[in-house]
């Protein structure tokens, strides 16, 4: 652990990371109050997951995202890495309101493509300090790439 990281209680910092990521999750959940009904009305590709899968998957992913940020912090991570990580959280936060409440599937697609790129950059930056922090973001990247394909298919089908 580095000097900066050792000056703070690591468990308190972990709680902060979990808290920040939880805010993103809660805002998304609040913006998605009618998402199950909207999702059910959409023409979906045959490989679309059931609506019931999203909650459990995102719960695991949000925990991994928070742990990844915390592990990067414990290495005295660079400001640039944290900035990109924060931009990713913001892009993540915007997708659900755009897609479900805004009815703006095309704008949501632009947002999730930005998120894809930002998560890739975050993984590259985190790898320099903590391979584990970067590795924890790989399931997240896989899911959002799948979600990007799904978003694209929904636009095409509808």
Q: What secondary-structure arrangement, pairings included, does this model have?
A:
Blueprint: H1 3-6, H2 10-30, H3 35-41, H4 54-74, H5 79-101, H6 105-127, H7 131-135, H8 138-157
Helix pairs in contact: 2-4, 2-5, 5-6, 6-8
Q: Report how far apart the termini are.
A: 51 Å
What is the name of the CATH topology? Ferritin
| Helix proportion range | over 70%
CATH level 1 name: Mainly Alpha
- What's the total helix number? 8
Strand-residue proportion: under 5%
Low-confidence stretches: none
Annotation, overall tally of beta strands: 0
- Summed over residues and divided by their number, the pLDDT gives a mean of 94
Rough outline? elongated
List SSEs in N-to-C order. Answer: HHHHHHHH
Main beta sheet: none
Structural class: mainly alpha
- Count up the domains: 1
CATH superfamily: TspO/MBR protein
Roughly how many Å is the radius of gyration?
Answer: 16 Å
What is the CATH architecture assignment? Answer: Up-down Bundle
């Amino acid at each position: 652990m580095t000097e900066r990281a050792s000056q703070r209680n690591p468990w308190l910092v972990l709680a902060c990371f979990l808290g920040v990521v939880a805010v993103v999750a809660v805002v998304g959940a609040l913006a998605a109050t009618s998402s199950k009904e909207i999702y059910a009305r959409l023409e979906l590709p045959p490989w679309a997951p059931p609506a019931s899968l999203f909650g459990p998957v995102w719960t695991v992913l949000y925990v991994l995202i928070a742990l990844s940020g915390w592990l990067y912090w414990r290495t005295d991570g660079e400001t640039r890495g944290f900035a990109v990580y924060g931009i990713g959280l913001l892009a993540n936060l915007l997708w659900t309101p755009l897609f479900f409440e805004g009815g703006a599937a095309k704008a949501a697609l632009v947002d999730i493509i930005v998120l894809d790129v930002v998560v890739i950059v975050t993984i590259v930056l985190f790898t320099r300090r903590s391979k584990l922090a970067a590795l924890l973001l790989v399931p997240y990247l896989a899911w959002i790439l799948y979600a990007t394909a799904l978003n694209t298919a929904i636009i095409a089908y509808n």
